[in-house]
Amino acid sequence: xxxxxxxxxxxxxxxxxxxxxxPLVASDVVVSKPMPGMSMTAGYLTLSxxxxxxxxxxxxxxxxxxxxxMHESVIEDGMARMYPLGDLMVLAKSSVVxxxxxxxxxxxxxxxxxxxxxxxxxxxxxxxxxxxxxxxx
Amino acid sequence: xxxxxxxxxxxAVTAIAFGTWLSFKMASPPPVTQVATVFPVAGELPEFSLLxxxxxxxxxxxxxGHWNLVFFGFTHCPDxxxxxxxxxxxxxxxxxxxxxxxxxxxxxxxxxxxxxxxEILAQYVGYFGNDNLGITGDLTELLKLTGGLGIxxxxxxxxxxxxxxxxxxxxxxxxxxxxxxxxxxxxxxxxNFVHDxxxxxxxx
Lengths: 137, 204
What we know:
The structure holds two protein chains of two kinds. Chain A is mainly beta. Chain A has one domain: PCu(A)C copper chaperone (Immunoglobulin-like), CATH 2.60.40. Chain A has one helix and eleven strands, in the order αβββββββββββ. In chain A, 22% of the residues are buried. Chain B folds into two domains: 1-30; 37-201, Glutaredoxin. Helices cover 38% and strands 26% of the residues of chain B. The longest helix of chain B has 25 residues, at 3-27. Chain B starts with a helix and ends with a helix. In chain B, 38% of the residues are buried. The A-B interface holds A 35-38, 40-42, 67, 71, 73, 75, 78-82, 100-101, 104, 106, 108 and B 73, 75-83, 119-120, 123-124, 126-127, 152, 156, 162, 164, 166-170, 185-187.
């Protein structure tokens, strides 16, 4: 028994560490309900890379929307423009913020009725992060 | 010093204090806007013939009788347009909470008449408030309005129905005579409208 307890403690610590050191973490996730009559909405969040290597997000997908694109709104010379983001690099030990008036997810053509949205962030063919979030008003 | 002298001295001190206060007040500059550009002479709007969100024909006189906050955007815009309309709605709510009664009307002029039918605009502007106004219609007529106001927009690259529109991000303030009185440049913050609008609207 004396030997078992330290092993259990180490196992528990191991679980905690692996949770904290998940390479890519999302926070402050907000996806609004599409406005009446609209077939699209925007999503915002902060992506934090806890790893010592950069992570490149190539695309995002969701079972609840036919298409999800990473975009950035900018005001240039008094003009509002929206650019599609290509590959998005989250540098090691850094964060990228998606916020109103800046980077955002554009979620288009919802599929059926739902209250929760699942977002899969891809690095190439691999899903590096899945986020589930309830739709907000 | 007798009571009579004390009375005279009190009157004199009061008169001096009042005079000082009055001269200070008269010398104080009027409040100034912190963000908005206010035009000393309000500008006339160009003639145009478009549709409101009910599908009824509207011209430049549609702006008369209200103060108007006019934004040029489109309903398929996921970020800047709803953000701007939320800012304007928030500012309007704050002005109402402050006891301001002559609240401005929020107007969205669509720069995407291809997709923004009156029905779609009605749902969109109605989402932000019941008394909002949406304007859309024929592109040629839209260009008369935007061109006359120096508002630029262009369809951006995209596939089929999946395209964006680049557009001027200003909010125009049109007075109840239907004249351009001021403009707010982006980025927009509700507190700037709450501060500046009462000043602008006092200069009708």
